[in-house]
Structure formats: structure tokens, C-alpha cells
Amino acid sequence: MWTFLRRRLLTSGISLVGVVVVVFFLARITGSPASLYLPESATQEQIDQFNRLNGLDDPVLVQFWNFLVGAVRLDFGDSIWQRRPALEVALSAMPPTLSLAGIALALSIVIALVAGSVAALFRFRGPDRVISVTTLTISSIPDFWFALVGILVLAVNLRVLPTSGYATPEAWILPTATLMLAPVGVLTQVVRGAMIDALGAGFVQNARARGYGRVRLVARHALRNAALPIVSVAGDRAAGMVNGSIIVGSVFAFPGIGTVILGAVLNRDFSVIQASVFVVGVGVILVNIVVDAVYALIDPRVRLGAGRSS
Amino acid sequence: MSSVPAASELEVVPAADPRPTGGRLTVHRLLRSPSALLSASWLAFLVVVAVALPPFVETAANRQDLSLRLLPPFSLDEGFAFVLGADSLGRPELLQLVMGTRSSLLVAVTAVAAAAVVGMALGLVSGYFGGWVDEILMRIADVMHTIPSLLLALAVLYVLQPSVGNLVIVLAVTRVPVYLRTARAEALALRERVFVESSRAVGARDWRIIRTDLAPLVVPTIRTVAMLELASVLLAAAGLSFLGIGLQRPDVDWGMMVADGRAYLASAWWVTVLPGVAIVLTALAANLLSNWLRAAEDPAQAARFVRRPRGGRRAA
Amino acid sequence: MTTLLEVEDLRVEFLTDAGPARPAVNGVDLRLGAGETLALLGESGSGKSVTSRALMGLVDFPGVVRGSIRFDGTELVDAPDRTLRRVRGTGIGMVFQDSLDSLNPVYTVGAQLTEALQVRMGMTRADARSRSVELLEAVGIVDAEQRVDAYPHQFSGGMRQRVCIAMAVALRPRLLIADEPTTALDVTVQAGILRLLRGLTEDTGMAMVFVTHDLAVAKQVAERVMVMFDGRAVEEGSIGNVFAAPSHPYTRRLLSAHPGRARHWRDLTKGEARDDDGEETHRAG
């Protein structure tokens, strides 16, 4: 258990360093980042002054060192637009994003567990076919378009939901549904596949040969084993939720990391983009650690050190 | 023992099976599956449209006529080009969709192909050699996994200029890890197999083994994954264009058309809805086809294609 | 001897969409008396494993079973779920080839044993638990009191197969189907398992169908053998008669394909089989 967690923390640390490096090079792809930090109307003098002030005339390695020192102190510079530390801007946007993503992911998992299990039990028969086509269709709908059509039908035509905002519970319905679009289809297919594998596994056949009923086979013997791939895919989807939240921020003006990122792009506020990449990266790493802990709880082979069996 | 076969029968191996296998079986199944056939036809139709039509309709598609702005669809008064209405600048929606077909397919297919080739090559190297090469590549894949693809694409396209080339590169780069992991897993398993060992024993060089022994066996899996990825890359590209950091005018793709219609959502729904329908239909066709193809080529899923006898036994 | 199992004209076919399938089992007849042990001998693909699964009603669509399987007077082919569930476990028990795969990796062996006893024998939790320890001791697990709380992956291959046997005999079945239970094991470990199974059938009066592709193993456990080839039973009789004077060409080929097997068998039955407790786990991950 502890060697397993230690190894996970080590690779997480490497990922974190990688994220910081990515953030640094994002700014340096085009050479001087002056054009990214300064407004487009900046004069050459202003650019030179900016370069001097920020040590951008130093060699790249020195710059990288300075950047690392800043990153260790969680200093990504100030937001030019909002005039406060970029990290603060990014962090303060996380709570609404986390709530929305959490609700959307939780609902997706519940739906996927039910639909995927039903599909697995009725493999290749009517219910399975219906569920398969439905989930494939859901996976084929672009989230931004779904959001707009949702507004068109429910807010503009039927007037049952607001077009934007987040203060009332109704305002959360469309953003949640939009955010569920990407994970729900994938998760249903994963649950189905995992359940089919588990139901066909030797230990379920053996349990069946002991005369157990169908409910016991599914709920006690298949589900816990099927949970392993489900948990790891659900964790993988955590990063994808940020993609959805950018779209949700754009269409519904739903506050969160999505709107911050879009605003930073629009206002040429590059330090906020850097801080956002960092904050999101750390968030995803934390989610992965939690996923691995859950994995170890479910599977004694992981916990007791027989390796993560596939 | 009433039906014991004659002794002579037993001296030979059981007779060869006359039933179709491999590629022939796949075609046999395709012809019997309406959804897969329909999906394949729709994709083929789009390819024809994307290749054949743009040179003829490009001028008409981009001609702006403010007198026709937001013309409602389903009327032939202004000619067939306007059967799906017009956008906010009076451009015919149908012809814009045709032009959009070309860019949407081109970007998605190129990005998928590039990611598949690069990812497979890196994955084979990673799995075959192992060691520090593998370690480094896997850590890079981990890092990429940690940054949401849309965020990475936004940041990169923000720094670089949005263009078709950069769009394809960004989409491809964010997808490389998928193929990298797949090819690596396969290469790891194949590395220990006898035929690889024997190649090594006769002194074949590593690169040659990767090329001639491993690659051909990994290609089918990579092809299946690529097929599966097509729909999601199509959606991702559309999303970037929707956010305004994908293609730029005068190029047009479906995602951009949806974004164009956004301001007129309440007054002219078709400008937003129709390009979205094109995306959904295309992504659905790709998803259905890849899902079906995976099943058709997987012996473990053979039961999917068997008709259940009426009143047949229930599974216990 | 009363007839326990009576199979008539058993046919199993796996349907495909690519034309008529070759039947996996093609008209097998079989009779087994109470307490009798039959070895079902054949190479892989001969239909012996499918036959054993059909006896348990474990053949699923697209597999289709026809003919008749009567166990203790109850028809099992096309029987409703309820009937099958009643017979499975308590009527017919089963031991599979891959012991690692046939135990649930996320529960301790004790949890799986007590579950069987509680659900199928109506025991209380405490009774089931102490009975589990007894059963593990009975199948030769040293330190059963402690090992009952271990997970399947913490056992060696041979010990794990003993756990599977304990789980099958826990429900006191009148017939045990053992589907190549020793194929995945080392020869020395194998001998221990075979002695255990023999001992259990003698002590409890349980009948056994022992599926194997190994002549020496068949000789060691059974008095009667049925040889299968290409879905058909091609020869049947007492082990001694069949092996001394094989009447069917396939059986002759099978015997001649195993030179030295007889000597090997003598070694096995004469020598004291090593206990396999110290043996390494077969699979690491």
C-alpha cells in the first residue's frame, strides 16, 4: 500500500514539474513574451522596458530558474486586467467550477452505472441496443451546440429556464446537462464493458455454479470488480470537465475557471492563463491521487502489493 | 455410441470450415447491418461532397447579399442554394455547409492520422526499448493528461496564430498520448513473443524488428482507436472554431457557423441549428461505424450478430 | 447402483451469423451412478469442457443446448432458472481449471466460503465461519484459522485450487464436476490435488466427472473413462479395458502420443507426493 502510494506521489510530483515547464514554455514559444503580456498597441520602447524589467534579456536558463523560483512561491505575476495576483484570480474561480463539475460527474456516474449494467445484463438484445445507440448519439453532440439549442428551446421558446446566471437552482440545469454530455456516454460504455467482463469472468461463473441468484451475482460479485475500470475512467474524465467548463463559461457566462480563461484570452492577460494551467494541473493531479486511493480500497491486490492487475 | 464416425474420418484433422472469416466476414456483416451501412454511406457521401463540390460553389458560398440576410430555410424562392436559408450576411447556408464539410473533415482526418502515426511510432519505441526512453515518454504523456486538451489548445493557439496548420498540430498533439499508450501496451506484450525472440536470435536489428515484426500487428488496433477518435476530434475542432481560435474566415467550418448564428439564436434558429445537425450526424456516423467495426472484428462479440431464435432459452 | 446422472443425445451448438456451426458436442450419451467417478478424456476442442459446462447449465447464448440431461430425476435442459439454481452448488458442484480466475479477487477466501454456506445452506454467520475453517483444514490448508482471512492472490496455485475444492464440497453436492482442475499446476502439486479429490469422493460418496486431457491423471482418479473426439463420445468403458485394448483409432492415437506416460503415472502413484505449501505463487501480477 505505502510503496504503491509513494510511487504514485513521485509520478504526481514529476507531472507537476512537467506542468510548470509547460507553463513556462507556453510563454516562450514565440521568443519574447512581451507581445503576450503587453497590449497590442504597446510601443517598442514599452516592450524594451518590459523586457528589462522582467529580466527577459537574460539567457533562457536564467529566466527558467527565475520562473521556477516564482512558481515555487506560487507567484505567476499579476493579472494585468484585474490588477491582482494571477494565481488568486485562477483560484477564486475554482469553487463554482468544482461544484458544477462535481454534480455533473456524480450524476453521470449514477446514470452510467444503471444504464451500463442494464445493457450488460441484456447484452446484444433490445435494451442493450437502445442504450448503445443513445449513448453514441449523446457522445456525438457538440457541447456548445447542445447548450445553444438548450437555451433556444427551454429559455427562449418555452421560457422555463434562464439563459444565464448561477444564482438560482434552475440556472444550474442547462450547464450541468451540458457538462454531462461528454462523460455520460463514455462512462456508460465503460460500465457496460466492465460489467460484461466481470459477469463473464471465472469467479462469476463459479459463483453461478454455486447456485447464486442474478442479483447477488451482479451486485456482490460483478459490480465491485467492474468498479475498478469505472473509477479510473471517471478520474480520467476529471480533466475533461475543465474543457466543458470553458464551453459552459462561454455560452452561459457561468462563473468559473472557464470564464476566467476565456476572459484572459480576450484581454491578453497571459499570466492568468499560466496560473490557470497550473491550478487546473494541480487539481487533476489531486483527483488522480484520490482515484488511486479509491482503487486501493476496492482492490486488495493493489492494497497488498500484488501490482495493479489489469 | 450410435453415431461413431468411421475410423478413416478420424485419422485426419476435422474438415476445414467453409464459413467466411476475416475481411470477408466483415463485409458479410456490413451488408446485414443497416446502421453501419447507413453510417458508412453518409461518411462516403460527405467525402464526395468535400472533394467534388467546393471548386464549383466557393464563389457562390461566400457571396454576401444583405437583402437575403437571415433568409428562412425550406423555400426554393431564391434558388436551391438557399433551400436551407441564409446567414447574417446573406450567404447561402447550404453552400456554407458544403464548404464547411471540406474543412471539418480535412482538419479532423489529418489530425487523427498525424496523431495516430506519431503516437504509434513513439509507443512502439517506448514499449520495445523500455528503460529511460519509455520512462520519459510516459511521463510526458502523464503531463499532457494533466492539462485539459481544450485549455492546452486555447493557450497554444493563443500564443501561436490560429490557422489550419496550427489547429491540426494542436489537435494532433493533444491526441498523441492515446495512441502512444495503446501501441506501447501492445509492443510490451509482443516483445516477449517467440517470433520477436527468433528475429533477435538471428541478429535482426531493433529498428527492423519494430518495423517488420511489431508494427504490422499493432496497426489494426491503432486503426480501431483512430476510427473511435475521429468523432471526438471532429467535436474538439468544432469547439475550437466555436470559441474563435480555430479556423478563421474566409475558411469556414461547422463549428464556426454555429458561433456565427449565436447572436441570432432567438430570431434565426437555423443559422445555429443546421451546422450543429451536420456535426451530430457526422460524429454519430463515425461513432456507430467504429463501434460496429470493433464488434465485427472481435470474435468475442460474435454473438452480437446472431439472430436469437424465437422463444429461445433464457440465459440463466 | 442407482443412476444419478443420465445424459441422452446431448448436442451443443454455438450459433454464428456466418452459416451453420459445427456442433461442439454432437450426440453424447452418458450415465453415472451415485458415488461413481468418470474421467472425460479428450484433447482440447473435443467438446469435453463444453459437455461439463452444459451439465451445469452454464452454456449461454449464442450456445444452444439440446437433448436431455437428467440429474436425480430432474430435467436440466431448458429448465427454468429456479430449477437450475436449486441444483447448482448443492446438487452438482464444480471446480474449474484456473483457480486464480475462479475466485473473486476482491473478497477473502473466508468471505467467499461463508457466503456460500450462508446463502445455500442457511447457516448463521458464526457457524458458517467456523465451518469454513474446518473445510479449509479438510482440504489440507495449513494454518486455516489465519488463512481464512487471506485473499486469493495470497495463495499458491495448488493451495488456491484446494480452496476452490473446499468451496465446491462445502455445499455437499452429490456430483462434483472437475474441469481440468490440475492442468495449470505442477506435477507434484497435481498429485496432491488428485489424492484429495479421490479421498473426498471415497469419504462422502460423492460422484465425480473429471475432465482431463491427461491419460495418467484419468487413470489416477477414475475407474471408468469416456473418450471424446470432435464432439462425440468415441469410446467408453473401464479404464483398464480401454487402455489395455483401445478399440477406437482415436484412443489408440491418444495412447501412442504419450510415450512414457505409463511410467510417469507409476512414479506418481507410488511416490509420496510433496505437500505444496511452500511453493511459489504462479502469477505475480
TrEMBL record, chain A:
Name of the protein in its database record: ABC transporter permease
Domain of life: Bacteria
Bilayer disposition of the protein: Multi-pass membrane protein
InterPro entries the UniProt entry points to: BPD_transp_1_N, MetI-like, MetI-like_sf
GO biological process, one term: transmembrane transport
Lineage, opening ranks: Bacteria, Bacillati, Actinomycetota, Actinomycetes, Micrococcales
Membrane spanning stretches: 9-29, 100-122, 143-160, 172-191, 246-266, 272-298
Family note: Belongs to the binding-protein-dependent transport system permease family.
Ranges for domain ABC transmembrane type-1: 94-291
Cellular localization per UniProt: Cell membrane
Keywords: Cell membrane, Membrane, Transmembrane, Transmembrane helix, Transport
PROSITE patterns linked to this entry: ABC_TM1
Record-level GO cellular component terms: plasma membrane
Annotated Gene3D superfamilies: MetI-like
Transmembrane found in the keyword field: yes
From TrEMBL, chain B:
PROSITE patterns referenced in this protein's UniProt entry, alphabetically: ABC_TM1
GO CC terms: plasma membrane
Keyword tags: Cell membrane, Membrane, Transmembrane, Transmembrane helix, Transport
NAD is among the record's keywords: no
Localization per Swiss-Prot or TrEMBL: Cell membrane
Topology of this chain in the membrane: Multi-pass membrane protein
Residue ranges of every copy of the ABC transmembrane type-1 domain listed in the record: 101-290
Main localization category: membrane
Transmembrane segments: 36-57, 105-130, 150-174, 226-247, 267-289
Highest taxon of the lineage: Bacteria
GO biological-process terms attached to the record: transmembrane transport
Alphabetical list of PANTHER family matching this protein: D,D-DIPEPTIDE TRANSPORT SYSTEM PERMEASE PROTEIN DDPC-RELATED, OLIGOPEPTIDE TRANSPORT SYSTEM PERMEASE PROTEIN APPC
UniProt similarity note: Belongs to the binding-protein-dependent transport system permease family.
Protein name as catalogued: ABC transporter permease
Native source organism of the sequence: Phycicoccus avicenniae
